[in-house]
């Protein structure tokens, strides 16, 4: 299978070209449009643009809350400190590992669940509700129940392990359990997005493939998945962005000890535990850049439809 | 190429609904058979059962002598053309047409040759590297045909393949499909709700209604000797006119006057114990302007006021309204609903006559019409059976 990459140009909003040729009516309409957008723009500036700008401003200063008087401008010094620190690279490595593994597992499981939900003839509503339960539970609550379950002596899951094992205290086992908790929690979300994509595959096309002699797997690989590509890319984009910012599961399960912390945990520790606003803000800005890079990669390279963008033409 | 035998095929859905009841038909090798009927008559279900896309509840299906009831579609060696064409949008025309061969692990060079041969037949050579989205409706339809013919299957199954084309293109493609089928000689089962397509394409036509086969026969046979009201009304355009009639001594009394009953018809009616209340069917072409009919032809004259006159050049269609058309007949109500007549909200009972273009008929004025009484059909209102042609359908 060779997915044609070039055909799916991400739809970028094209600016209207000819300037100064607007009629009076068109200008009126544009003014009305701007006025109608204005309240939303003001709110967005207040809650998004200002915090981002302030975080960037803070990241360029040496600013420790314990010594607020000594705050001073250091330029990109904080970024240098973060990027040369082994803590950052360790956290980034753990984050990427968790992101890649959990999203990959979720994609496969989510696809399987979506196929089951799509084909369920009776009890469709019940199946969908049952599948969605993990997604409906607050992450922190779910994380605590995982933590209790894996705690030696009290947890029912720990009891299944050989005596003396404490999985949450070992780096690899803990990362595995963090990934398990992530997968358990967000696979339903993936399944729902993929189910919506599956509903877009025309039934006659699949039946045509059956008559053409395709087995179930051939139909899945050669017809259904290529036709679902836009939906899969959107699902992957959302989940990757989400997974990269993982915080609550790690915070509850290990607190980031034994080298299990993600970049978000590292940022939190620096900002709120060490009260180092400069370094913490620099980490936040770096996370922001990573997330932006992931989104850019998906939209520009793989051709995922940007959320809110024009639907892809085929 | 193969013979297809449907032996007592029945489709019952889990909720108990019967989609197809006891369908018996032997489709000869190389034959072009049309399944026609209004929507919901079970024609597509029958086709899907032949394809293997739907399970057969009862009966046996044999293709080329083998029972294939439990075989998956891929093991039946049949090709299907769908109404939506069902092309693979992510593949170009070449890959679409070669997909089945690729799955069958046919040698690449062979696939290439076969696809190019089919593209040449269908005039698609210059479009081979384009995606379906960049093709016109007619071109997509041809790709769907091409996908079927490259495989050289035992049979072609076509599910309303021309319904998504505009009227003009549909007529062109209809001719092309007929020529292609004759050239390839592949057994073909074709589903349509359009009786004109059915009449022009098929060697034999199967008329279905409510999951039951009504009649099987050549297009001309269905037209000349429909077994019941439904077939009579469904086949032919404009459709047959129906009038309530009372059987008198030597005539059928209708709102258009008394229609003489000749000896042959009287004997037929007597032998079948015909009731006194009957339905008379008259095809539009069995009317003529009385002024244009020579004295020597036997028939019946009557007078009616012309509502609408439509000239199509070769013929003139004259519409007039009669009170007291046959009422409460489910077949006729169904036909009216299917043709959209029920939605026009017209009062009274509409009669259409096809006249010679020399007629002087004018809208709003009365005219003398002549009816060819030797060609009328008489139906039993209770059973719908055609009493004029009592022989059962030829299978």
Automatic annotation (TrEMBL), chain A:
CDD domains: TM_PBP2. It comes from Kitasatospora paracochleata. Residues 1-16 have a biased composition (Low complexity). Belongs to the binding-protein-dependent transport system permease family. This is Multiple sugar transport system permease protein. Residues 1-22 are annotated as: Disordered. It is found in: Cell membrane; Membrane. Keywords: Membrane, Sugar transport, Transmembrane, Transmembrane helix, Transport. It is a multi-pass membrane protein.
Automatic annotation (TrEMBL), chain B:
Residues 4-235 form the ABC transporter domain. The keyword Transport applies. It comes from the Bacteria. InterPro entries: AAA+_ATPase, ABC_transporter-like_ATP-bd, ABC_transporter-like_CS, ABC_transpr_MalK-like, ABC_transpr_MalK/UgpC-like, Mo/tungstate-bd_C_term_dom, NA-bd_OB-fold, OB_MalK-like. It holds the Pfam family OB_MalK. GO terms for molecular function: ATP binding. This is Multiple sugar transport system ATP-binding protein. The keyword Translocase applies. It comes from Kitasatospora paracochleata. Keywords: ATP-binding, Cell membrane, Membrane, Nucleotide-binding, Sugar transport, Translocase, Transport.
